[in-house]
Description:
Blueprint: H1 3-9, H2 13-17, H3 47-55, E1 67-70, E2 76-81, H4 95-114, E3 117-123, E4 140-146, H5 176-185, E5 192-197, H6 201-220, H7 222-230, E6 232-234, H8 235-242, E7 246-248, H9 251-258, H10 273-287, E8 291-297, H11 302-321, E9 325-328, H12 340-349, E10 358-366
Parallel strand pairs: 6-7
Antiparallel strand pairs: 1-2, 2-4, 3-4, 5-8, 8-10, 9-10
The structure holds flavin mononucleotide.
Amino acid sequence: MNKRQFLRIAGGGLIAAAGATTLPGCSSAMPAEAIAAWQSPPASLDIRRWVLAHALLAPNAHNLQGWLVDLDTPDVIVLRMDLTRLLPETDPWSRQLVISQGTFLELLDMAARERGYRAEIEMFPQGQFDARAPDSRPTASIRLVRDAQIQPDPLFAHVLRRHTHRGLYESRSPAPAAVQALAASVLGLPVRFGVVTAAEPAQMQQHRDIAMQAWRIELVTPRTLLESYKVLRIGPKEIAQHRDGLSLNTPFVRALTALGLFDRSQASAPDSQAITGQISEFNAKIASTPAYVWLSSERNDRTTQLLSGRAYVRLQLAATAHGLSMHPLSQALQELPEQAQNYKAIHQLLGAGQGTSTVQMWTRLGYAAATEPSPRRGLQAHLAKS
Ligand SMILES: Cc1cc2nc3c(=O)[nH]c(=O)nc-3n(C[C@H](O)[C@H](O)[C@H](O)COP(=O)(O)O)c2cc1C
């Protein structure tokens, strides 16, 4: 690679170019300590810690893992949002982060069932957050009660295998039986499940257009781009040190970073190779996507957002059970002036226009080669210091 090429892609385009070049002797594997949480915890662990060890594997926005738990009262877990881990630019009302509390609760509940406990969950025991700002009140208080009648949940078997897949997907459509299982997985929760496949080409094209447009805006809006750069963890050392955020571990990106050619404090110009490269990589993923699924809800209060999170992880576990991968596309759902047009377009397309309902999750769905787990900080990092 000549120097000019090297400099041209520095500052973000390296993400697009990442797979293109490899350096000998440099592994892209995740550092073992960053993904240690994906091993089954020992059954001898205290029940609260055992269920929490599963809950912290939940999908969550930007992998910030903003879950604080308080174990001061025996048999009780009090869950709060970590207010130091917010996303003010891309999630200004913390809707995605409240959804991410819900994904945690659902896995906690499933893990408790697995061990013969009923998780008595009281959502927002001290009242719901304001619609625009979370606060330090608990999102849930959970009491674990032994219950001989409790039914295990078959989706639990897939908790350790569920991973967000951001790569290319195969072109074949999801099997109808799998789609039915996805729809069934969220029954009883206050969400509407929707799906589109190649059987509806005009609709698919609209999904593609909105996804690509919204991603472009995320990249050319300096404040949203920089928010992701802030939580980029590049190379095994940073990944192992933080065990959160968005991991980049290809030798090419690591080399550029080591040489000081990727400055994460600066947003790249919209017409730079840096940005256009990332856009074309994303567009190729969208082009490869054989289906999209979504969850919308009539209400958009904090309890509904929590329950949408419970629904989302169930959906992804059902997909995992059927060999399908998912990749959420949150950009068009973000409550930002820059995304207003895409927000309107996706809501109209999904039958949620004019404020009739809120699209809580919208994701790619398809078959794909296996992907790696993402890092987790581990239980100790979530225990509130009293
Ligand atoms: C509310 C919410 C929004 C998300 N939005 C995106 C997104 O826009 N793009 C993306 O690549 N992943 C998105 N994700 C997936 C997370 O980045 C992912 O869950 C996290 O990095 C942890 O990885 P894992 O799911 O493989 O455990 C979202 C997840 C949740 C729960």
